[in-house]
Specification:
The protein is mainly β and 102 residues long. It contains no helices and 8 strands.
């Protein structure tokens, strides 16, 4: 069984036991999180929401909080002696999908 959930502006396809990385969540490590915005549930019987599947939930546990890969942003303007380098690390949370319920 799989589900399509919506979290932090992204739509993700998840199965039970998957480990996914999403934008930083307020929950602490080891805490249980419930996703109520389920767009679709698939398997033997497919349920497509309009826009959400009623009564569907996906529960997960927060594994850890971490910083993503460093992204360098380089700004340059020719003939103006202007160069700037900025770095950014996205705050991420790793979660493990537990149960998908309809």
């Amino acid at each position: 069984m799989y589900a399509v959930i919506k979290t932090s502006g992204r739509q993700l396809t998840v199965k039970e036991g998957d480990v996914i990385t999403v934008n930083r969540m307020a929950a602490k490590a080891g805490e249980a999180v419930t996703f109520d915005e389920v767009l679709m549930i698939g398997g033997a019987k497919i349920a497509i929401g309009a826009p959400l599947v009623k009564g569907a939930k996906v529960t997960a546990t927060v594994s850890e909080h971490l910083a993503g890969e460093k992204v360098l942003v380089f700004k340059y303007k020719r003939r103006k002696n202007f160069k700037r380098t900025h770095g950014h690390k996205q705050a991420l949370t790793t979660i493990k999908i537990g149960k998908i319920s309809v």
